[in-house]
From TrEMBL:
Source organism of the structure: Streptomyces monticola
Pathway assignment: Cofactor biosynthesis; biotin biosynthesis
E.C. number: 2.3.1.47
Official protein name in the record: 8-amino-7-oxononanoate synthase
Alphabetized InterPro entries for the sequence: Aminotrans_II_pyridoxalP_BS, Aminotransferase_I/II_large, AON_synthase_class-II, PyrdxlP-dep_Trfase, PyrdxlP-dep_Trfase_major, PyrdxlP-dep_Trfase_small
Length: 393
C-alpha cells in the first residue's frame, strides 16, 4: 500500500522528522556540539578521563608508534579471521594477570566489551538485574540481550536480591564498579554475596576503577577480593587510566571461551588497532612499575572534593577519581561550565536527559599528575564562577 502524501512537513522528505526533533532540542536548550581541541592548550583539563596522565607519556606514545610500525595501521580483520596478533594475545595475558583474573578478551572499545559481556551471559530465559545508574553501554547490553531485564534502585543489594528471588534459571547482576556520573562506588562485596545466595553471576564495569582502585590500580574486583572468582566478570576500557583506546572482558577461562564463540560485538568487529593495543600494553607495564600513580589519582580527587566542599559547594565524596559538583539547574550548569572554560578550565557538564535523577552537575576528573598549583587554580575558578544557588546554605 502506498502512503498518502500529506502537507505535514515532517513527512514531506525522508528525514523531515529530524528537523522537528532538532527544533525541539534547540527549544529545550539541549543541543550538543563538537569542539575539536588543539594538541596544545593553556586550558587546564579536568574533563578528560586520562586519570593517570598516561595518554601522552613517551612510553605510551612510543608503544603505539612501534606497534603500528610493526603490525600495521589496522588489525586487518576480525579477531577470528586475521585480526588477532601476538600483541593482542600478550595484552590479554598481561591484563588478566594484572587484574587477577584467569583470562581476558580484548575488544575494540569498552562499549563493545559491555555489549559482549551482557549479551553473551544473558541468554533467552535468563534475568539481568541492572542498577538504575549504570552506564549507557551496560543499558544497551541489556536491551540487546535475549534475557529479560529488571532495573533496580541505585546501589541497593537488597533490591537486587528481591529481583533475583522472582526468577528461576540463569541470572546476572550488572553494575558499574564506580558510577560515571557521581563517582560513587557500587557496594560490590554485598552485591557479590547476594548474587551467590541466588547463584547469579556478577558483571562489573570497571571502566573507572582500573588504574585507580585496588593495589597499584588493579581495579575494583581486586580491591574487594572478588578478582578471579568463578562467578565474577569484569569489563574494562583501555581509554581512561591506560590512556589508549579499546576494551576488555576479564573472567574465568570458560566465560572468555564462550564470548569468543558467541559475543557478536567481538565476532563481527575488526580487531583492536595494533597502535591502541601497543599503547595500552605500554601503559599497563608502566603502571606495574609505578603503582603509586593510582593512590595519587585518589589523593587529587580527595583534595578537590575537600576544597570544593570547604568553599560551600555541594561535591559528592569521591570513591575513585571522579568528582561531581551539584548545580542548581541545567541552564546554570551549562553557564557554569562555560564560565569555567572562558576562565581557562575545562570541566564536564551533566544534565538531563543524560542523568536519570534529573540533577545537573559539573563533573571533574582528578589526574594523578595535577600539581598543587593546578588544583588551586581549578578550585578558585570553580568557586569564582559558581552560581549563587550552588552553595549550601
Ligand atoms: C562506565 C563506563 N563504561 C563503559 C564506557 C565505554 O568505554 P569506551 O569509551 O572504551 O567505549 C565508559 C566510557 O565512557 C564508561 O564511563
Amino acid at each position: 500500500m502506498h502512503r498518502q502524501a500529506t502537507n505535514d512537513s515532517s513527512a514531506a522528505t525522508p528525514f523531515g522528522w529530524i528537523d522537528e526533533q532538532s527544533a525541539q532540542r534547540r527549544a529545550a536548550g539541549l543541543v550538543r556540539v563538537l569542539r575539536p581541541r588543539a594538541a596544545e592548550s593553556d586550558r587546564l583539563d579536568l574533563a578528560g578521563n586520562d586519570y593517570l596522565g598516561l595518554s601522552r607519556h613517551p612510553e605510551v606514545t612510543e608503544g603505539a608508534a612501534a606497534a603500528a610500525r610493526h603490525w600495521g595501521g589496522g588489525a586487518t580483520g576480525s579477531r577470528l579471521v586475521t585480526g588477532s596478533t601476538e600483541l593482542h594475545a600478550e595484552l590479554e595475558r598481561e591484563l588478566a594477570e594484572f587484574c587477577g583474573f584467569e583470562a581476558a578478551l580484548v575488544l575494540s572499545s569498552g562499549y563493545a566489551a559491555n555489549l559482549a559481556a551482557v549479551t553473551a551471559l544473558a541468554p533467552h530465559g535468563s534475568l539481568i538485574v541492572s542498577d538504575a545508574g549504570n552506564h549507557a553501554s551496560l543499558i544497551d547490553g541489556c536491551r540487546l540481550a535475549r534475557g529479560a531485564t529488571s532495573v533496580v534502585a541505585h546501589a541497593d543489594p537488597e533490591a537486587v536480591g528481591k529481583a533475583l528471588d522472582t526468577h528461576t534459571g540463569p541470572a546476572v547482576a550488572v553494575t558499574d564498579s564506580v558510577f560515571s556520573v557521581d563517582g560513587d562506588a557500587a557496594p560490590l562485596a554485598q552485591l557479590a554475596a547476594v548474587c551467590r545466595e541466588y547463584r547469579a553471576g556478577l558483571i562489573m564495569d570497571d571502566a573507572h576503577g582500573l588504574g585507580v582502585l585496588g593495589a597499584g590500580g588493579r581495579g575494583a574486583a581486586q580491591a574487594t577480593g572478588l578478582a578471579g572468582d568463578p562467578d565474577v566478570v569484569a569489563t574494562l576500557t583501555l581509554s581512561k587510566s591506560l590512556g589508549s583506546q579499546g576494551g576488555a572482558v576479564l573472567g574465568p577461562a570458560k566465560v572468555i571461551e564462550h564470548l569468543v564463540n558467541t559475543a557478536r560485538t567481538f565476532i563481527f568487529d575488526t580487531g583492536l588497532a595494533p597502535a591502541a593495543a601497543g599503547a595500552a600494553l605500554a601503559a599497563l607495564r608502566l603502571l606495574s612499575r609505578e603503582p603509586e600513580r593510582a593512590a595519587q589519582a585518589r589523593a587529587v580527587a580527595a583534595e578537590l572534593h575537600g576544597r570544593l566542599t570547604a568553599a560551600g559547594l555541594q561535591a559528592v565524596r569521591p570513591d575513585a577519581a571522579v568528582v561531581s559538583v551539584r548545580a542548581p539547574s541545567p541552564d546554570e550548569a551549562v553557564q557554569w561550565a562555560a564560565d569555567c572554560r572562558a576562565a581557562g578550565l575545562v570541566v564536564g557538564c551533566f544534565r538531563p536527559p543524560s542523568v536519570p535523577d534529573g540533577i545537573s552537575r559539573l563533573r571533574l576528573t582528578a589526574r594523578a599528575t595535577l600539581t598543587g598549583d593546578q588544583i588551586e587554580r581549578a578550585v578558585r575558578t570553580i568557586e569564582r564562577t559558581a552560581p549563587a544557588g550552588a552553595r549550601t546554605a
